[in-house]
Automatic annotation (TrEMBL):
Species whose genome carries this gene: Terrabacter terrigena
Signal peptide: none
Descriptive protein name: Reverse transcriptase-like protein
InterPro entries noted in UniProt: RNaseH-like_sf (IPR012337), RNaseH_domain (IPR002156), RNaseH_sf (IPR036397)
PROSITE patterns documented for this protein: RNASE_H_1
Domain RNase H type-1: 8-153
SUPFAM superfamilies: Ribonuclease H-like
Length: 326
């Protein structure tokens, strides 16, 4: 795919993988973005997916890698390298997509490719044998072991990684994931517009003017996000990333990726999302096991606050605040 506008001329490589122990079974994905000129790894990602198929895990790795590219340089020329013949052939348009889950994920991946194309970049796909995809495979296995990884590697971190490449624990190469603190206020989408006035008033008291406001792409979330944005003097955006509709019943990988993107930016943000969206963020912060994902009570219209600090550590300020609904 080639963009009509002029790109940046930068080249990036995405290496992605996913796996499932049981197919379907315990699943996870791994992805990284590499500078092909130097071989340096810029971002490493891994995320457990609960019980999923291999194909869902592989597509999830691709999506995470493309999102990371958009964060780095939306106008880059991107080569995606995967050992999944299915994903490469489907994304290249040579194989049909028969299963509904695959169609949805392929559409999401194509939307991300289109955003890169719109920025003047391009995306192409290359199949590689598994032995040449060892780094992404290692990340996906870490995810299947229950580990979440989100590493943005700075120059110093890459030097540390080069020195300790033989060591099994690469956590020491991690750089801080945010340049400034993030204050995130999560608003669980209400069932109707009735509580909107109380929600908007509560949000206005908690955040200052000019906060980033994002809503999931359903009508109720989008309307409430626009009302909140007007109250704090900004413009609202909507995003499918916060819909909470990804396959599975545990944390939504798109929501977690969107949350971590906010953490990388910092500032103050208000997000209107579903119960699953709220719980996906909380599970990521608290390390909630999959079997306890739904254990935390949250009500429609409730507020939940998360804070992320410069070193990447996060805390939950409060959950399920509902006094504004009385």
């Amino acid at each position: 795919m080639t963009g009509a506008s002029r790109g940046t001329g930068r080249r990036l490589v995405v290496e992605a993988d996913g796996g499932s122990r049981g197919n379907p079974g315990v699943a996870g994905y791994g992805a990284l973005v590499r500078d092909p000129a130097t071989g340096a790894v810029l971002v490493e990602l891994a995320e457990p997916l609960g019980k999923q198929s291999n194909n869902v895990a592989e597509y999830s790795g691709l999506i995470a890698g493309l999102r990371a590219v958009l964060d780095i340089d939306a106008g880059a020329s991107v080569r995606v390298r995967m050992d999944s013949k299915l994903v490469v052939e489907q994304m290249s348009g040579r194989w049909k997509i028969k299963h509904e889950d695959m169609r949805r994920l392929a559409l999401e991946a194509r939307d991300l490719c289109a955003k890169i194309s719109d920025g003047g970049g391009s995306v192409d796909f290359e199949w590689i044998p598994r032995e040449k995809n060892k780094d992404a495979d290692a990340l996906s296995n870490a995810a299947m072991d229950g580990r979440s990884v989100h590493r943005v590697l700075t120059g110093d971190a890459r030097e540390a990684a080069d020195v300790s490449a033989s060591e099994p624990d690469v956590e020491q190469a991690a750089a801080p994931v945010t340049a400034r603190p993030l204050r995130l206020l999560l608003v669980q989408t209400p069932h109707d517009d009735g509580p909107a006035e109380g929600i908007v008033g509560a949000v206005r008291r908690l955040v200052g003017p000019g906060a980033l406001v994002v809503g999931a792409d359903d009508d109720e979330s989008a309307r409430l996000a626009r009302s909140i944005a007007r109250a704090v003097g900004t413009e609202a955006t909507t995003s499918t990333d916060w819909s909470g509709r990804a396959p599975g019943e545990a944390g939504d990988v798109s929501v977690v990726t969107a949350y971590r993107s906010l953490a990388g930016t910092g500032g103050t943000a208000v997000v209107v999302t579903s119960r699953r969206g709220v719980l996906s963020v909380l599970a990521d912060v608290l390390g909630t096991p999959v079997e306890r994902f739904w254990a935390l009570a949250t009500a429609p219209g409730s507020l939940t606050a998360v804070e992320v600090w410069e070193d990447g550590s996060a805390s939950v300020a409060f959950t399920n605040r509902t006094n504004h609904l009385a």
